[in-house]
User: Which sequence fits this backbone?
């Protein structure tokens, strides 16, 4: 498995290629990777199968490009923010992990319509092993860098525990991103969160406390 952020294509983008990516992203977000055919994408995009074959070669490569177009910039931003965080700064680590996702979800041009959140939900819940592998190849460097930063929060923390805490951080973020709207009915109306950004402070505090907690001295 690759251990660095890996751009899918060095080719210059074309209008047709970008249109196919836009349409594929929206359809995958709405219906799932397995349910959407290449023909549906080309019909929606006003092009043909030859265009998909020319720009991507296969549906799997198109899925990879859709995922990479969203996740690569997000992960680069995470690493940029992490580079500015001091050693042992658990709140800073949590913010570096969360803030690029919040920014992407609030992007009116691409994410404000909910497509980003839906697409990320599909990535997390993908049942196809091939799709899961395409998603996972985006994260080894990011997870490794954040695990190393988390180890600096507790002297003697094992590498295994640090990786687990990054997993917990990702899980808490994903659940909050996709299910914060459920809080209002679950709380009988006393807790309403209109968007992920509104609970950032609580989530950062929660994650930071978890990073600093005791234990973590043994490999899991």
Assistant:
């Amino acid at each position: 498995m690759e251990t660095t952020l890996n751009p899918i294509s060095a080719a210059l983008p074309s209008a047709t290629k970008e249109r196919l990516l836009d349409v594929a992203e929206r359809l995958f977000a709405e219906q799932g990777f397995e349910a959407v055919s290449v023909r549906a994408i080309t019909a929606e995009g006003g092009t043909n199968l030859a265009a998909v074959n020319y720009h991507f070669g296969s549906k799997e490569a198109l899925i990879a490009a859709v995922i990479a177009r969203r996740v690569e910039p997000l992960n680069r931003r995470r690493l940029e923010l992490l580079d500015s965080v001091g050693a042992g700064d658990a709140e800073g680590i949590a913010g570096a992990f969360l803030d690029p996702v919040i920014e992407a979800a609030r992007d009116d041009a691409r994410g404000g319509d909910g497509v980003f959140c839906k697409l990320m939900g599909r990535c997390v819940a993908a049942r196809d092993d091939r799709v899961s592998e395409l998603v996972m190849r985006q994260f080894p460097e990011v997870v490794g860098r954040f695990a190393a930063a988390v180890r600096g929060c507790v002297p003697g923390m094992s590498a295994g525990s640090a990786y687990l805490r990054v997993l917990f951080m990702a899980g808490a973020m994903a659940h909050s991103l996709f299910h914060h709207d459920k809080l209002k009915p679950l709380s009988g109306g006393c807790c309403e969160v209109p968007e992920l950004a509104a609970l950032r402070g609580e989530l950062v505090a929660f994650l930071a406390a978890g990073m600093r907690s005791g234990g973590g001295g043994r490999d899991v």
Notes: Residues 1-12 have pLDDT under 50 and may be disordered. DSSP finds eleven helices and no strands in the chain. The domain at 71-212 is CATH 1.10.357.10 (Tetracycline Repressor; domain 2). The two ends are 22 Å apart (CA to CA).
